[in-house]
Give the backbone structure.
Amino acid sequence: MADAIHSSEEQYKFDVITKVLKKEIKPGLAAKLLGISTRQVRRLKIAVREEGVSATVHKLKGKPGNHHIDLGVKKKAITAIKETYFDFKPTFATEKLEENYAIAISPETTRLWMIETGLWKSRKQKAVKYKSWRPRKDYFGEMEQFDGSYHLWFENRLLDKNGDSLETCLLASIDDATGKITKAAFAANEGVIAVFTFWKEYILKHGKPISIYLDKFSTYKINHKAAVDNSDLLTQFQRTMQTLGIQLITAHSPEAKGRIERLFQTLQDRLVKEMRLAKINTPTQANIFLENVFLPAFNNKFSVIPAKEGNLHKPLSETDKNNLTSIFSIQSTRKINNDFTIQFKNNWYQLAEIQPTTVRPKEIVIVEERLNGTIHFSLQKLYLNYTILPEKPKKISRQPIILTRHKLNWQPSADHPWRQYGKIKS
């Protein structure tokens, strides 16, 4: 036979089929030797008789495959990756190529091309460790995982007063049953005001979840330079959620609430790049982008169907609605001074003479710092009237004993029932 043999494997296959043709071995043994079926052996016998050794060579050998990608498409894809998606991971780059360039290829193809061009390095897979995963909750709204992440979300497009790239805080909640991001918003920090604003907006939109899963310490990033008033946050948050009937579950490690931790890893890759492409440069722009563009697309792609159908978010009661501003306030207590003043955060407040309830010196009032910055004092669930003093009040010799609904020197009118008491009727 004068036909060229292209590989030792093809030569071996030809030799085995030749022995079958010479009846030196049976087709069943040939099938075992070649790892094919006896039916394929019969077809090869016929082909070798007609074509000789070339029958053992694959018909597409040396030719482009049936699924060969045109070199022009490859060039276009690599150019786009180099110019725009140079730091994207292969899977994310693949999505963008299809979305913006109508190039439909597999992530593995993109990975190979990026390795060829030096845009991606092949990585060894990590050894798999056994982990016992906590199963998801059954219903949407049964549990929300909540946390915040400080990161260079705007890369070098947002600078601080010293001209350095500014880290900002992203607050986010993810539903445990569906993996859906139920809310995400950029805030200055994870202080009480930011967290309260987040959850007030959440509850007004979705209702009250059954529980919120958060960690004890790192949720509030006590050691981060941008963190503020963290010492009060958990206590204030516990009080607020208890009032609303929402259970707080505190994890003892970041791994315990892995869903929100993995979410931030994904967002630090995808969200950062999406905002770069959309030319989003400020937290205000980013919050609009999150609400209208990113979250709907992200949830459509990555959320899952819950194990059981139903929404466990509870609607706000009328009492909740009426008191929501008060519930989401920072609350503390102060004592009323003898001159009916209250000192709070270096300011002095003078209670008015007429009040909705009886007020005595030394009584304890609840101070509410509302999210809009206003201060309110409550006693027996009624709000007291006051004015802000420009400075510390001076002591006076005479002062009222109590404050009531009317002035203490009030005199009843001539026809008041009190004046009729004791008069003899004629």
